[in-house]
Amino acid sequence: MSDADARLQPRKSGLTRRQKRALSRGAQYVVFVAAVIAFAVTADWGRLKNQFAQWDLVKQMFPDVITLALKNTVLYTMSGFVVGLVLGLVIALMRLSPVGPYRWLAGIYIEIFRGLPALLIFVFVGVAVPLAFPGTQIPGGTYGKVALALGLVSAAYMAETIRAGIQAVPKGQMEAARSLGFSHARAMVSIVIPQAFRIVIPPLTNELVLLFKDSSLVLFLGVTLEERELTKFGRDLASQTANSTPILVAGLCYLLVTVPLGFVVRRLEAKAGEATK
Length: 277
Known about the structure:
Blueprint: H1 3-8, H2 17-42, H3 45-52, H4 55-61, H5 64-95, H6 100-115, H7 118-132, H8 142-168, H9 171-179, H10 184-214, H11 230-241, H12 245-276
């Protein structure tokens, strides 16, 4: 090979693939550290402290932020989750029904309520329902309205999750149950649905986390002081004091619930993955 041909050949890098990956990771760490340092240097910590870290305001929020706001948030979330779970199971069974109109109605419901913003559902429950049915009161007052609104929103997602779980159960389970003399309905209730719920526990837990955050939309229903949840509670106090510290504290209270729930979701997903190996 001539000297001219040798110069035309591409030079081989002296780094191995592992060294290249290590170099890439090191560069990413450098960029991250540089971004953190730039933020720490350029941020006005004094103004941030005055606006978000007033300890006197934090003390004023306790214990009401826990005993009232967080308690209401949990109650709203759990009631909406129960309504959504029951309604979602019914819709999932309708989606799997051999009766055409049931499948069509379930599909229409899912597409509508999965496509509409949750805020519009709250407005619909709080305004449209009383106008459509004069004199009709939703049981439970504000708690009933929130449970219905959150349930309508979550049912569309839960229905698809539960349907996928039912279809993931091996068909042999149904066939074995029928061969033992079970009716189709009894086999579904006793054999298929319990197995399906074990499969869909992780995504349903994730839906619970989303509902916990969506419960903040209750403020659009017009609540009393005793019915306020975290966002409404923090927003009211922030407006009264012209300071954002209550908003920050309310956000931290959300994290007190969502972070452990997120950990539970990851653990459940890991166990489900180990069970399928």
